[in-house]
């Protein structure tokens, strides 16, 4: 990025001041530590999707491991392409790729009705469709003025809070709502505040990593970590393509459902890419959106080829960059390489996977809060009319309302559309885009 481009776009960053800019390379040691930090915040969310699918389908151990390995391979390769680029694929931004949970329902349904091989085939087809329409999606940046971008980021941050608190409280685990669980989550937030307030430079930039290491040690001291799973894990594994059998036609309805899910990822990825572009101080250009959406498609197809789940760009990137000041894409590229290492060396992944939910959940809550604060900052600097206020209010009402809706509220909607309609973040973003187009600008 040229100095002129930085000067032009740096003022759009708001409070997000970077110690490491997009194209900075801080050396091998800092790059590796920052890269691991960037990935650790998102690791449990990545492996959580395959574990949920495995539980719902009651998959045997060997199949569960194959799904985890395939997902990690896809995440790692797609993250490296996201940061470094491969031709026109990848936005060349510090964006980590991970599992999109909207695909869990279709995968389970297709696997139960036909087979897991058919489910993977549907994901491969959907990923290729995503790749094919990426040039069209790349033109959406014109529909994302600052007020829409800010609303998008606020929706993402607030919409993900439910996931954060579920992880932090240990929901669905024996540790749910235990005093130690809540205490550990609160300790993580406190540690981030203390380290951020009283440290500078390298230590402050590594605040999330330090916090999680301390949380890991404290959890071990309370007997919450069983290293037996590490001993059982293999040293090396080589994922194989089509681990559940070859390609199998899943049916037209299944393909349409998966393609609708990929449309949802394209919308969210567009807003996320524009947000990260703003934070790192580069122009919000269509080619970056095209590259990000194309990477979603190719990464998802690759992941499914090895038995993993469909991918998307993770919103936690916004929070990590804003808090640590580390916006280097080379740092994130190393993070992608580390993900591949975890897939190929299961003992490494097993050590990371032992991190208690309360430790990760406390960090996630803070990160989602940082994401929301970035959105608030952008909205605050661009909310100049009643029209803008209406766009923000309506989008938040719909987006957050859907997120808070009780179970069964959308049973009347056909199943294929329900997947899209019940995603509050996507629906809120789409409404913001629509209102920005049709609502007359005030004189």
List the secondary-structure elements in sequence, H or E.
HHHEHHHHHHHHHHHEHHHHHHH
For the secondary structure, the number of strands is 2
- Distinct helical segment count: 21
Tell me the span between the first and last alpha carbons: 36 Å
**Shape designation:** globular
Derived structural class: mainly alpha
Low-confidence stretches: 1-11
Chain-averaged pLDDT? 86
Overall radius of gyration: 21 Å
Give a verbal description of the structure.
70% of the residues lie in helices and 1% in strands. The chain is mainly α. Strands 1-2 form a two-stranded antiparallel ribbon. The longest helix has 30 residues, at 28-57. The radius of gyration is 21 Å and the shape is globular.
